[in-house]
């Protein structure tokens, strides 16, 4: 099998088979990641560049480490310390990186559709590491990988995503991906933080956290994304925490063996109590490890497309 596109722009565009293929490849990568010798030759001779216009710890570092573990040449560009600050356009910056022999550009940008725009203008593969409020496909893939690792499959599971759904590219990608793999996804959040079109995506939406949590197999908390908010339209942190914060008492509504997840970074005491972050059911640390495995898989699959196409 080969991924149809040269790029990974969103889970909206992927088939269920492609998602499963990526998750299965990540399983192999996880064995390498947790072994004593992590160095593999899978990306020898390949060049990977991260181009970030927004802050990141997990996504950027896990791509960088994934590249290094698989023997690629890798480099990072921060928009704030590059020629972007001198007025260079997004396409010109991407073309400049492309012309240096780069095989994969991983981009995070505040504008929805930025990765799609550069993908049309360059030869390198483009991976979307988060575009505005649109998608964060690699986060959703690692979330799904983590759930499948624990539960065997997503089919028939009830997944409750709680909080600022409107601004969340993580929620959007997870909704596309998880529904394709057969999960029942429901969301809960303040009315002003639920996108009006949400039910068209095949999910149930609730205005109380309690309704969404009942019998959930997986509970995912989200931080309130202040960086994307227009002033005055949304609840205060205190209201958000009071009505949609997840603590041990509220989580009793979910199944006893429910998995607790969060894409990070977590605001302890706001969307999750500190006790929940550190509880036995919390997979937040495992999500981080799995993020490296999933990104290793993606880099491998996207850079081998040419050779597989030629063989076929
Ligand atoms: N989950 C996530 O995207 O984290 P970072 O912003 O640290 O990359």
Distance between the termini: 10 Å
Count helical runs. 12
Helical residue percent band: 25-40%
Order of helices and strands: HEHEHEHEHEHEEHEHHEHHH
The Rg value, from CA coordinates, equals 19 Å
Structural class: alpha/beta
Family: Belongs to the aspartate/ornithine carbamoyltransferase superfamily. ATCase family.
InterPro entries: Asp/Orn_carbamoyltranf_P-bd, Asp/Orn_carbamoylTrfase, Asp/Orn_carbamoylTrfase_sf, Asp_carbamoyltransf, Asp_carbamoyltransf_Asp/Orn-bd
GO cellular component, one term: cytosol
Subunit structure: Heterododecamer (2C3:3R2) of six catalytic PyrB chains organized as two trimers (C3), and six regulatory PyrI chains organized as three dimers (R2).
Please give a structural write-up.
It comes from Acetivibrio clariflavus (strain DSM 19732 / NBRC 101661 / EBR45) (Clostridium clariflavum). GO terms for molecular function: amino acid binding; aspartate carbamoyltransferase activity. The chain is of the alpha/beta class and 312 residues long. The protein contains 12 helices and 9 strands. The protein has a 5-stranded parallel β-sheet with strand order 7-6-5-8-9. Strands 2-1-3-4 form a 4-stranded parallel β-sheet, sandwiched between helices. Strand 3 (104-109), helix 4 and strand 4 form a beta-alpha-beta unit. The radius of gyration is 19 Å and the shape is globular. The N and C termini lie close together (10 Å). The mean pLDDT is 95.
Identify the notable features of this structure and list them briefly.
single chain; 312 residues; alpha/beta; Rossmann fold; four-stranded parallel sheet; 12 helices; 9 strands; binds phosphoric acid mono(formamide)ester
